[in-house]
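Can anyone check this?
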Amino acid sequence: MENYAKQFNKRAEKVSFDKEHRHKILHNIEKYNVAFRKGREFYSDLELAKKRAGYYKYKVINDLGEYLIDFEAHFTAHGGKVIWALNANDALNHILEILKKRRATTVVKSKSMTTEEIGLNEVLEKNRIKAVETDLGEFIVQQAGEKPYHIVTPAMHKSKEDIVRLMNDKFELPPDSTPEEITLFVRGYLREQFLQADAGISGANFLIADLGAIALTENEGNALLSTSIPSLHIVVAGIEKIIPRMDDLDLFWPLLATHGTGQNMTVYNSIIFGPRQENENDGPTEVIVILLDNGRTRVLEKNRQRIALCCIRCGACLNACPVYKNIGGYVYDTTYTGPIGAVITPLMRGLEEYNHLSFASSLCGECTDVCPVKIPLHELLLFNRYEAVKKGHVESWWRYAMRMSRWLFLHRRLMDTGSPRLRQFLVDKFIVPLWGPRRILPKLAPKSFSKQWTDNLE
């Protein structure tokens, strides 16, 4: 079987020349760009807000254990339950145990990349538990038998016509259905699912340490229904989702909304403290939070790269990245794509197999500029590359080529040896193939700069 890097390159080669795919993704990203440019005008000093958010998140990451214990103590005091999961299998086993104990057969899910990360839907299906995605974009890709294409907009790769054909095939909707008609149909369909569900499963945008609460933000109200109608609510959250205080939400929620969708604020914002209390008439009777590690502490071990755990999953770096715009989300074949995925996936899942993602970047710095919590993403990609090379996780021919290049560049006279024609032949023979078939290497000048300099001195 081919390794992940070769598979990545083959997929990238194919998708990069798919003009229809490129048109769809660029069209949708441009719509985002227009909204984002308008949304950031809401701020009188966006850079200051980003610096504050980055400071608070990095402070939490550096004292993560303390804040997690604080969250657990406050959340359990409200009647909730916290389960610590070391890895994906651990989390899945806990979820299955909880659902089977309840004899659950149907669950409704709000949008959650963390549940995608652990492959929850596939495991539930194998155990004959129906999982219904209730976010419209997630619902669309679920019906298509696909994974989310983008962290925030899972159906970004589909055109209006694609969705109409899908809904006609799956639900026999008229082939001339409008987006409004499709939305209304899905709304009615999901209302029945909410009422029938035995459990609701969500992620968490933020975990609030000082009050032991879960913060969810959304635009459709599906998360609110998923977490309030069923009697059981399971939250699957990465351990890095902690923020220090409730008061910090007035900083993080607008930043997430503006960088995620261009809005000043998303439509529905919920703060969940735990199960229904004695004086409350509705809500779940049981709320369980599963705190997931699954490689995050491996990122935490890195003195430099640990700052990547500050990510609030806004997806802005994906929309800014020229590589993502060309190859899209599925080429990565990972849950987290784009620049942030290229940083954290190799660290969470293994540099040996996934270091190629850190090399799939132009290092232009757009991702760093747009990040709402000031993560220096393009620098972290370089740290990953350095570590991959130092540990010998790159191909031997590449290491040999780099050694030879270094030796050659340190010996100026060798670079000037021979005729211009001979030097160009050597470059075409040995350098151009390494440079890549899609890149044009400039022709060597007949006379090098050092030679011109020497001649002028004479």
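Reply from J.R.: I decoded it. The two ends are 60 Å apart (CA to CA).
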